[in-house]
Amino acid sequence: MITVTNKTDHGGDVRLTGISKTYGSFTAVHPLDLTVPQGSFFALLGASGCGKTTTLRMIAGLEEPSSGTVFLGDQEVTHLPPYKRPVNTVFQSYALFPHLDIFENVAFGLRRRGIKSVKKQVEDMLDLVQLGEQARKKPHQLSGGQQQRVAVARALINHPKVLLLDEPLGALDLKLRRQMQLELKRIQTEVGITFVHVTHDQEEAMTMADTVAVMNAGRVEQLGSPTDLYENPQTTFVANFLGTSNLIEAEVDSKTNGDIVLKAGGAGKLVLPEARCSAPTTTGGRVLVGVRPEKISLTHADEAGEIPEGRNRITGRIADSSFIGVSTQYVIDSPVCPEFEVYAQNIDRDARLVPGAEVVLHWNPAHTFGLDAAQSLLAGTVDSAGIDEQAAV
């Protein structure tokens, strides 16, 4: 029987206090404080070079912190070697023993600790990862996804307090990776052990994790649930890195009944709920107005009079469109944003919405968010400096 951890007991939290890592003059991780609740599925998300893997390796004991402390529950483990920490790590390479069958790969940790009777524990663990019928096969006889599940089983059988996953799905093709995302979440929910998962894949983090820490240049940019990060980004980096955002430069005109009224170039007035703005909002001040592409409706200019009152709206011309099955993705050339993106579900397609058509884009003001205009509009995009240029850290 697999033991399920009590998720309401916080004695097994992973706590990082003032943790940092420098290599000479380069700072890979700036001092950060982070708590991973016991029994949660926690993701460290960021581009190559952001410090996420270095942070994971400091939890594992594979890197010595330059400052700060690491606690696993009530135990400080900052200077303990990896084998003395109640953690196990699953890497992208799986590192299975090719000469051992699946049963013996999973049993390896128990036998190394001198445990004689391993049959029941190994069988239970193979059942958990749905590989009971593959027990006597060698690793090379299994698919990549099956090998990944063997690696998870081998790590979990030692009953660690924390399982660390370093890009474990990176070597799998897209369809198998999506299947394994759900599989790992199922396993984590069933055993109740804390999972800390490092990934650069936004969809993967949002599919699997209860809480996501978005990292950028060695710092945690924003921490929260996938829904909160997506719906309420606090920086342009998070707005752009988690999905796509349209960002409009605007000026605060007035405030009324909890809303901010803004002027945005040729768009006229836009309304932003004050509670959804993380920027200073003094009259005349600059704000970046954000809205996600799927929140926007697209109406041909000939029917502009049928758009309900009270919606934010801007005009533009369709520059490009791409049919991708479930939706059509439009790029709109607008006076307020040269490449405004709109994702429209393919339910009732308007044949007039083709490149060159004049359109009105409109959306519910409640779906608008506001960011500090002092930030770069490109932060978190593939065009911004450093996203794909640094080596993985």
Automatic annotation (TrEMBL):
Residues 14-242 form the ABC transporter domain. GO terms for cellular component: ATP-binding cassette (ABC) transporter complex. One of its GO terms (molecular function) is ATP hydrolysis activity. Pfam families: ABC_tran, TOBE_2. Gene3D superfamilies: 2.40.50.100, P-loop containing nucleotide triphosphate hydrolases. InterPro entries: AAA+_ATPase, ABC_SmlMolc_Importer, ABC_transporter-like_ATP-bd, ABC_transporter-like_CS, Mo/tungstate-bd_C_term_dom, P-loop_NTPase, PotA-like, PotA_ATP-bd. This is Spermidine/putrescine import ATP-binding protein PotA. It comes from the Bacteria. Part of the ABC transporter complex PotABCD involved in spermidine/putrescine import. Responsible for energy coupling to the transport system. The complex is composed of two ATP-binding proteins (PotA), two transmembrane proteins (PotB and PotC) and a solute-binding protein (PotD). SUPFAM superfamilies: MOP-like, P-loop containing nucleoside triphosphate hydrolases. It catalyses: ATP + H2O + polyamine-[polyamine-binding protein]Side 1 = ADP + phosphate + polyamineSide 2 + [polyamine-binding protein]Side 1. PROSITE patterns: ABC_TRANSPORTER_1, ABC_TRANSPORTER_2. Keywords: ATP-binding, Cell membrane, Membrane, Nucleotide-binding, Translocase, Transport. Its EC number is 7.6.2.11. Belongs to the ABC transporter superfamily. Spermidine/putrescine importer (TC 3.A.1.11.1) family. The keyword NAD does not apply.
